[in-house]
Amino acid sequence: MRATNNHTNNTRFTAAYFKREEDLLAATREARTKGFAIHDVYTPYAVHGLDEAMGLQRTRLAWIAFAAGAFGLFCGLLLQIWTSAYDWPLNVGGKPFNSFPLFIPVTFELTVLFSGLIAIGVLFLRNRLWLFKRRRVFERVTDDRFVLVLRQPDASFDAERAVALFAGHQALNVIEGDEFV
């Protein structure tokens, strides 16, 4: 869950490992209230309430998927009406050229196809999930650890205050570096 994506190459990061999700949630809430810039949070499973703790807004991806589905529905109907009634009309047993019940399966499939593909494309572009982009892999995050990463935007970042905040919430380990992106 990425809070913001505006960072430069000279930005440093501080990451803390937690064993329990309650400690991670409390540390995330406190870090946000104390003005720390939360870069990202890594968890082995979805944690209820983490979006609110990070201060993330609700996603607009559902509206994008809906608009893409409506576009797919329009394209499916337009394609079938144009091909069967105008471009290549076939008289099959005296049935009308624009028989809408026959258009339902193809229209449904194009609605789902457009919605899914465009939503996935927008998701990848928005989250900058390029194909060969290297990312740091935190130890045991996929097993049983939780990681909170704070961004150090400038020299005013107080690392001692961040370490004290993490220690107050039973952080197992605190590391610093610039390769967490």
Roughly how much helix do the residues carry, as a percent range? Answer: 40-55%
**Shape, please?**
elongated
Q: Helix tally?
A: 5
Gyration radius from CA atoms, angstroms: 25 Å
Beta fraction = 5-15%
In CATH, the architecture of the largest domain is 2-Layer Sandwich
Overall mean pLDDT stands at 85
CATH topology assignment of the largest domain: Alpha-Beta Plaits
Biggest sheet: strand arrangement = 2-3-1-4
Class of the largest domain in CATH?
A: Alpha Beta
Which sheet architecture does the biggest sheet show? 4 strands, antiparallel
Query: Total domains, how many?
Result: 2
Helices and strands, in order, run as EHEHHHEHE
Secondary structure category: alpha+beta
**What is the number of beta strands?**
4
N→C terminal distance: 13 Å
Low-confidence runs: 4-8
Write the layout of secondary structure elements.
Blueprint: E1 12-18, H1 21-33, E2 37-42, H2 50-54, H3 61-87, H4 100-126, E3 146-152, H5 159-167, E4 173-177
Antiparallel strand pairs: 1-3, 1-4, 2-3
Description of the molecule:
The chain has 181 residues and is of the alpha+beta class. It has two domains: 12-57 and 139-177, Alpha-Beta Plaits, CATH 3.30.70; 61-126, no CATH class. Helix content is 45%, strand content 14%. It has five helices and four strands; from the N terminus they run E-H-E-H-H-H-E-H-E. It has helices at residues 21-33, 50-54, 61-87, 100-126, 159-167; strands at residues 12-18, 37-42, 146-152, 173-177. A four-stranded antiparallel β-sheet has the order 2-3-1-4, with helices on one face. Helix 3 packs antiparallel against helix 4 (100-126). The longest helix is centred in the middle third of the chain and has 27 residues, at 61-87. It is elongated and about 80 Å long. The model is unreliable at 4-8 (pLDDT under 50).
